Amino acid sequence: MDVPGMLRITTDDIPAADRFAHWREERGKAVFGVTIELDPASRNDFRASIAACPVGEASFVDMHVGHLEASYHVARTEADIARIPIDSLCIWRLVDGAGRLQSGHDDDLVLAGSLAIGYTDLPYANIAAPRQGFHCQFVKIPLAAHRHLSGKTDLVARPLGNEPGLNALLNSYFDAFVAQAPHLSGAKADLAIETLVQLALMARGDKRSPEDGRAAISEALLERARDRIKAHLHRADLSPALVAAMLGMSVRRLHQLFEPTGETFSRYVFAERLARARLMLVMQPAESIAHVGYHCGFDSLSTFHRGFRAAYGVSPGEFRHQRQRD
């Protein structure tokens, strides 16, 4: 995950013979409070990297471990917990790879795309499948920083399914959170973490208050609507009815999702079109102004030019010329 603002750590600048030992001691034991094991015969082939950033009081980590012939074992033992208590809710996604998650009395198969939730200070073990690497992403949210997490120390780590409904909504919101994590701060970060916590607890069977539950579901549905809009921004016919149909909801419900933001559906779409056009004018200098406008879904060049000047104070052509001079 190559995004400005994220701390990056890699084993690439460490001699091959020392990589695994460094990773096990300096990253595993000292930072994450886990015990890592790997067959000695595979250690010279070990390569790994981490990208991390804070999101409000929480932290987001994106981790890659390269192809290995042997199984890669990560355990959070009673001794690890006593040595480095973390006291957080952890939500993580296995992006690529496969393996097993052992916690409590359970031994679950974990496949690419799986999302899991658990309390950090209960023992567990992750065992990656041999003859492949893995890519995982996780968010840790301190219990002390969130009122809804008070007393949630009994959540044994467990993978979730991706069934329609709440689990699917959590899965899609987690993906949106990950994409935005390096750019979130202040009130936006707090709202994103609040929504993620609420959805995760509901997915694990925790009964939320009706008001809290509705707010989290509405925020996740709004994020899903924004995602659909961005994916179809090139369509000039991108209407509330079209997006509502994509989401399986009424047009009235779609408009209700946007009401708390102070921005209507139409204004959001128009602003997104302008922002994408502005980026294209810089990143694709060979494309004509007309191509940029139509590609971003404007139904006429006059609407594109008028809206762009109102938003940025210059025409699309003037903006491109200024950026080329800079």
From TrEMBL:
InterPro entries in the record: AraC_XylS_family_regulators, Homeodomain-like_sf, HTH_AraC, Tscrpt_reg_AraC-type_HTH
Xref: Pfam families: HTH_18
Molecular function (GO) terms for this protein are:
DNA-binding transcription factor activity; sequence-specific DNA binding
Which part of the chain is the HTH araC/xylS-type domain?
223-322
Q: Does the keyword Transcription apply?
A: yes
Looking at the keywords, is Transcription regulation present?
yes
Swiss-Prot/TrEMBL keywords: DNA-binding, Transcription, Transcription regulation
Q: Where are the transmembrane segments?
A: none
The record ties this protein, via PANTHER family, to: ARAC SUBFAMILY, HTH-TYPE TRANSCRIPTIONAL ACTIVATOR RHAS-RELATED
From the Swiss-Prot or TrEMBL record, give the protein name: Helix-turn-helix transcriptional regulator
Write down the species.
Answer: Phreatobacter stygius
